[in-house]
Amino acid sequence: MGVFPAIYSTLSPEALIEEVLARYELGAVERCLFWNRGLSDIYLIDAKNQSYILKISHHHWRSQSEIQFELEFLDFLHEQEIPVANPLKTTDGKLFVTIHAVEGDRYAALFPYAPGEVPQGDLNLAQSQILGQTLGKIHQTSLHFHNSTPRQPLDIKYLLNDSLAVISPYLRHRVSDLHYLNKAIYKIKQQLTCLEQVPPLWSVCWGDPHSGNVHFTADNQITLFDFDQCGYGWRVFDLAKFLQVSLNAGINCQVRDAFFKGYQSVQELTDAEMFSLQALTQMAHIWNWAISINAAAIHNWSRLDDFYTNKRLHQLKRLGSGEWQLF
């Protein structure tokens, strides 16, 4: 029969040490642990009293050109002194290593371990403001980023149309709910006609700004990581994504307001951007819904039950209500 086909494989830490980490100037690797499975596989690396993160893409999630774009953007931000976890280069100057896994090619990138830790109990007011300021600086700086590597833009087609195509099969037996989703998406599109795809409104976005993707030190020095979902898009979409995650997690309004205060201390949002915020927050929710369905193929199909669908629909309806920022 030969090697049996697979849609996902867990890569051997020992093999990663020999075949991937050996391509970096790390010296003797003391430990390589499979740390977390998310949209990518994360390995914790210890070598010469220093810690690193080895991030390995999933075959179904990102193409080589998308990985190249992400890593070149992070490298650029690091050069501009934006506090991000920057990809380290191999001994031959490359930003990633291609792994020929049984399911297809995957891409490994090595990062220094971000100093500090994820905020305990979530962001406080000072940390939220710092995160907002840093995001504003990213959007300003990204206007000078020039890259010819193709990357899926965070536009209406990708975030809404493609997401609807993923979600719809799970609502076929729920005709009224599918009708509601289609109607909600139509309304979102109408509310976004005021936004132009021109700088500075349109820049490279992080795609996933929230407290789980930052480390703070004891003196509130920040490091950002996980730019898996970055791409060209409306800068205000990043703020909407922060809102979508924060509202879902129950982060209080003072912390959310501090984030916006920090952002607007760097650059002011336009009236059109503020008007579009609710629609973009709904769009972020729908995109996240589609991502989680696609990821279920390697995580757990059983979670895609009626409870899961009811929860997602309920959250979308709350985000579309007049009291969307009050819960």
Protein described:
The chain has two domains: 13-112, 2-Layer Sandwich (Phosphorylase Kinase, domain 1), CATH 3.30.200; 125-319, Aminoglycoside phosphotransferase (APH), C-terminal lobe (Aminoglycoside 3'-phosphotransferase, Chain: A, domain 2). It is built from nine helices and nine strands. It has helices at residues 13-19, 64-79, 125-142, 156-167, 175-191, 235-249, 253-264, 271-295, 306-319, and strands spanning 29-37, 40-47, 50-57, 97-101, 104-112, 202-205, 214-216, 222-224, 231-234. The protein has a five-stranded antiparallel β-sheet with strand order 1-2-3-5-4, with helices on both faces. Strands 6-9 form a two-stranded antiparallel sheet. Strand 4 and strand 5 form a beta hairpin. Helix 8 packs antiparallel against helix 9 (306-319). The relative contact order is 0.13.
Topology:
Blueprint: H1 13-19, E1 29-37, E2 40-47, E3 50-57, H2 64-79, E4 97-101, E5 104-112, H3 125-142, H4 156-167, H5 175-191, E6 202-205, E7 214-216, E8 222-224, E9 231-234, H6 235-249, H7 253-264, H8 271-295, H9 306-319
Antiparallel strand pairs: 1-2, 2-3, 3-5, 4-5, 6-9, 7-8
Helix pairs in contact: 3-7, 4-8, 5-8, 6-8, 8-9
Q: Any descriptors?
A:
single chain; alpha+beta; Phosphorylase Kinase, domain 1; Aminoglycoside 3'-phosphotransferase, Chain: A, domain 2; 2 domains; 5-stranded antiparallel β-sheet; about 40% helix
